[in-house]
Amino acid sequence: MWLALLLYPFAIVPYTYFFSFIFPTEDTGEKFMMIHNFLLGGLVPVAILVLRIIESTESAGKALMWIFKFSPMYCLCEAVINIPSKDIFRANNNGDISELDINVAGGSVLFLGI
């Protein structure tokens, strides 16, 4: 989790800078980014975790997980949620899983580093 927290500032600054060119004024861009970060940081990671836990929707959850990894806020929140939940993934995979496994927090750390 510390690695994700250390990489997050270096990932969110260029991401926000890129989105600043889309909007004509600062206040519309700020409002969009606040809603965008709230959704991708608060609601989407929890919804995808639930999708990945339920066996019938696990494949949809895994596909959506990789689509949303392009957002640094999603990556940080997914790492924070998945590391304490790794026992759930260990039960699903029938083996020992580390925190930096690609399906736990490794993918998020990888995307934050890119």
Quick structural overview:
The protein is mostly helical and 114 residues long. The chain is 78% helix and 0% strand. It has 6 helices and no strands.
Structure description:
- The chain has six helices and no strands.
- It is an all-alpha fold.
- The protein has one domain.
- Helix 4 packs antiparallel against helix 6.
- The chain starts with a helix and ends with a helix.
Poorly predicted ranges (pLDDT <50, ≥5 residues)? none
| Sheet with most strands | none
- The secondary-structure element order is HHHHHH
Class from helix and strand fractions: mainly alpha
Number of helical regions: 6
Task: Kindly report how far apart the N and C termini lie.
Answer: 17 Å
Radius of gyration: 15 Å
Q: How many domains would you count in the coordinates?
A: 1
Which properties best describe this structure?
about 110 residues; elongated; mainly alpha; single chain; 6 helices
Break the fold down into its secondary structure elements and pairings.
Layout: H1 2-20, H2 26-53, H3 58-68, H4 72-82, H5 86-93, H6 102-113
Helix pairs in contact: 1-4, 1-6, 2-3, 2-4, 4-6
